[in-house]
């Protein structure tokens, strides 16, 4: 319960701000690009540094890194809630992502080490998937009742309780004690991914060149260092490589969905923040139910076939949402796609998480957990930048409901196409047993 709650907070913090974005934009005078950075500052720092966090958990001790990450994560949430300006908010979100990068892989490696059966991973996958949908729901409730700062401050008391409970319930471990944490690798991959996302967000063509140079430097560092951040052998261990590709694409769609869907509901359909949040409940319930049933599905039809089916359901839901009308309603345009999307996401996250740690030796569990989460978050950051560019190209800078609806439909259809392309690759034999 303690470890799952921590993971729920980490995922929740990716999406809880989405319904509040129009209120944050008005309160801090954010530009449209600034709104995406409130999400991407967290997601990008989280994803880029997860590998370092996973390795630190293996070396320094999983509970120790878990508690340190939780402290940074919770403190940064408080600063974000009290932020007086947009730069302070974006910086606090980046620091919160740094804390999450230590917290999440340490928690996953503790789960796998303490509970070797698949049931614990089913719970983990359920809270991971539900955290995104629940974040939108809670974001709407909190924004309507207490204003946008509450979406950050609400995390603080829960983080404190989780920290105290961890000291009481989670056994301490010493870690491997190995020396040599790959800081140069962490710095080059973080800078390279930041340049890439910035370039995709319209920051200038020179940033693409900087991203290529920095990411190439990262590969060189990984080849030459004695203790690489990402040992290349890991990609051929079990289902890590194939699961990482899948998580990248699904993560791109996941973050983009929970960014654009609340905006469509508020800016096109005219929903209040509370209504936009409450109408995410069917998606959340569908997600939780599908995650709970995913192990049975895998046992019945196999992991690869189960994943392919989940992706097909997800793509269908996204394509349906891509037909949403400017004068649409929740019942006709949102409810049906939400149920399909929730079912597809919930199942896919569980099966991809299980595949990623399948066959991984115990000393590398933290690194494998970090890589799994990293690919999802990095995919989310890059995916949001790409889908935002697609939406912006379709709207042409117009802000009337009809133009915005065209942009959001284009984003949803692009997401559906990405998932459709992924389906054949999910049948690759290295994906899972």
From TrEMBL:
Domain Major facilitator superfamily (MFS) profile residues, every copy: 1-433
Keywords recorded for this protein, A-Z: Cell membrane, Membrane, Transmembrane, Transmembrane helix, Transport
GO cellular component: plasma membrane
Taxonomic superkingdom: Bacteria
Record membrane topology: Multi-pass membrane protein
Database matches in Pfam families: MFS_1
UniProt cross-references to SUPFAM superfamilies, sorted A to Z: MFS general substrate transporter
PROSITE patterns: MFS, SUGAR_TRANSPORT_1
Main location: membrane
Record-annotated membrane-spanning stretches: 32-53, 65-83, 95-115, 122-142, 148-169, 206-222, 234-261, 273-293, 305-322, 334-357, 408-428
A Gene Ontology molecular function term of the record: transmembrane transporter activity
UniProt-annotated location(s): Cell membrane
KW Transmembrane (keyword) present: yes
This protein's name: MFS transporter
């Amino acid at each position: 319960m303690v470890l799952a709650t921590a993971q729920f907070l980490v995922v929740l913090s990716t999406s809880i701000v989405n319904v509040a974005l129009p209120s944050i934009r008005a309160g801090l005078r954010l530009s449209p690009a600034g709104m995406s950075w409130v999400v991407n500052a967290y997601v990008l720092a989280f994803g880029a540094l997860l590998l370092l966090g996973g390795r630190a958990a293996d070396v320094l001790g999983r509970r120790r890194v878990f508690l340190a990450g939780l402290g940074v994560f919770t403190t940064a949430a408080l600063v974000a809630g009290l932020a007086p300006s947009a730069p302070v908010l974006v910086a606090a979100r980046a620091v919160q992502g740094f804390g999450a990068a230590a917290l999440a892989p340490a928690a996953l490696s503790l789960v796998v080490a303490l509970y070797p059966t698949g049931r614990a991973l089913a719970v983990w996958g359920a809270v991971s998937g539900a955290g995104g949908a629940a974040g939108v729901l809670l974001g709407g409730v909190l924004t309507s009742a207490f204003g946008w700062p509450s979406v950050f401050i609400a995390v603080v008391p829960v983080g404190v309780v989780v920290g105290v409970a961890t000291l009481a319930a989670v056994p301490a471990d010493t870690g491997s004690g190995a020396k040599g944490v790959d800081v140069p690798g962490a710095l080059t991959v973080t800078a390279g991914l930041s340049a890439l996302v910035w370039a995709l967000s319209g920051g200038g063509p020179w940033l693409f060149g900087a991203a290529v140079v920095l990411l190439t430097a990262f590969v060189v560092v990984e080849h030459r260092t004695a203790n690489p951040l990402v040992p290349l052998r890991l990609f051929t261990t079990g289902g890590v490589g194939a699961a990482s590709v899948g998580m990248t694409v699904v993560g791109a769609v996941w973050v983009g969905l929970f960014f654009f869907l609340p905006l469509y509901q508020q800016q096109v359909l005219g929903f209040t923040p509370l209504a936009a949040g409450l109408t995410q409940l069917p998606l959340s319930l569908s997600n939780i139910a599908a995650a709970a049933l995913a192990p049975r599905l895998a046992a019945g039809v196999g992991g690869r076939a189960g994943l392919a089916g989940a992706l097909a359901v997800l793509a269908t839901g996204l394509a349906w949402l891509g037909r949403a009308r400017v004068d649409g309603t929740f019942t006709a345009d949102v409810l049906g796609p939400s149920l399909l999307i929730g079912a597809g996401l919930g199942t896919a996250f569980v099966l991809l998480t299980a595949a990623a740690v399948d066959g991984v030796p115990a000393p590398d569990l933290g690194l494998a957990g970090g890589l799994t989460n990293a690919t999802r978050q990095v995919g989310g950051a890059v995916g949001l930048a790409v889908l935002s560019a697609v939406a912006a190209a379709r709207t042409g800078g117009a802000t009337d409901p009809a133009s915005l609806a065209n942009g959001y439909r284009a984003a949803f259809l692009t997401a559906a196409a990405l998932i459709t392309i992924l389906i054949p690759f999910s049948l690759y034999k290295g994906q899972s047993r």
